[in-house]
Structure formats: C-alpha cells, structure tokens
Amino acid sequence: MQQFGPLFIDASTRLAGENVWVKLDDFWDRHARFVAVARLWEDRFDPEKLRADWISVEEQVERLNRGGPAPLGYIPDPTHQYDRVCPKLPWERQSFEKEVLRSNDYLRQLVYELLRCELILHTQDCVQTWTVNPVPHREYIYDVQFEPVRSYTSLWSAIWELFGLDTRQYGWKLCRLCGRIFYPKDRRSVCCSTEHQSLWSKRQWASRHRSSKRSREKGGRKNR
C-alpha cells in the first residue's frame, strides 16, 4: 500500500486529495485469497505440494471466501448475481481422503477451473477501451492505428489481470539462487540474471559430479 495505494479507491476522493480509509480485515482476506490461488498455480505439477496447498485452502476457506464479492468457484451471473460453475472443491467430495488426494490429474485440473473462475470474478469491472498509436505511413507522414486495451478500475482488478497474463508462455518465476521474482527471457531460465544462472548451473554441475564420484567410489569398494 505504501508503493501503490489501497486495493480500491474512489475517483472523486482521489481527485479531492482526501484521506483514504482502508479496511485491513478485507485487505488481508483478499491477500490470503490471492496467495492461496497463486500457490495452487505454482505447485500444479508438484503432487505433494499441491495436496498440501488444497488442504491449506480447506483450512482457511471461510476467510478466503470473504476476500472477494463471491466465494471460491463463483463467477458473475446476470440473473443470479453470482453463479457456481467450478466443480466441487476437494473437501466437498465424499471421497476426498481416499480418491481426490490420490488423483494428481484431478487436483491439477481443478486448479485450472478455479483460476479461470477467479480471473473472471475479480476482473469483472475492467473496462474494454481503445488506444490510438501513431504508425509510419510515408516520409514525414504518420497515420494512426487503434488497439483494444483494458482499463483497470482498481488495483485489485489489475493484480488479477496481470496474474492471468503471466500464465501465458513465460510467466514469472522465483530465482533458484536468491528467491527474487523475475520474468524469464527464455523458458529454460531458472535465475533472475545471467550471473545467477551461471552460478546456479555450476553448483548443479558440481553437485552431480560429487554424486557421480561417490557412486563410483562406492561401486569400487563393493568390487574389492
């Protein structure tokens, strides 16, 4: 909030330069909801972490449901205001312990369904608009082209919009060396800079080399 301001702000209040009141309970409920959903996405290919993430969501589901205009799994509906479209969440199924926790494919598919609902729900107030960009036409003459863009009505909607965009191709990652969030220039990058990538690769090589050497030494002792 120090850097970007509150999640929601009234335009008239902002223009008037008045103080903005923030409901901290609502802020931290929304923060918990975003973190929980983002963690599901990050761990979708790690079965153990993914199971733990779903259990964590179950344990705080009441709080997460408060962190938005509708509970998890709902999207806006013109007739009923909000409608449930996401399949039953793991703890809502009778076979949760026996079947769901053993079904990695199901848990990962459910992440996709839930994230789609969350993106629709939290970006519903974003406005489709158009921007004008100059383009070369002939020497010393410029034309213009119109491109569709999204206009954000709150920081909250912008956070979810950008999160959704990050799921395409090269999304953000955590640097394996320093833990910093970064956007990779190559899908193979696992570190935030060339220097960290090089150091990480050297450490990985050294680790594999030590493991291989220990295996050879162990095999040699057995042969003797």
What does this structure look like?
The protein has 224 residues and is α+β, with helices and mostly antiparallel strands. The strands form three sheets. Strands 1-2 form a two-stranded antiparallel sheet. A two-stranded antiparallel ribbon has the order 3-4. The radius of gyration is 24 Å and the shape is extended. It is 47% helix and 16% strand. It has two domains: 11-122; 177-224. It contains seven helices and six strands, in the order ααααββαββαββα.
Percent of residues in helices comes to 40-55%
Question: Which stretches of 5+ consecutive residues score pLDDT under 50?
Answer: none
Radius of gyration: 24 Å
The largest sheet, given as strand count, sense and whether it forms a barrel, is: 2 strands, antiparallel
Number of domains: 2
Average residue pLDDT: 83
Give the overall form. Answer: extended
Number of DSSP-assigned strands: 6
Order of helices and strands: HHHHEEHEEHEEH
Q: What amount of the residues lies in strands?
A: 15-25%
Q: Helical element count? A: 7
Q: Strand order across the biggest sheet?
A: 1-2
Protein structure class: alpha+beta
**N-C termini distance:** 67 Å
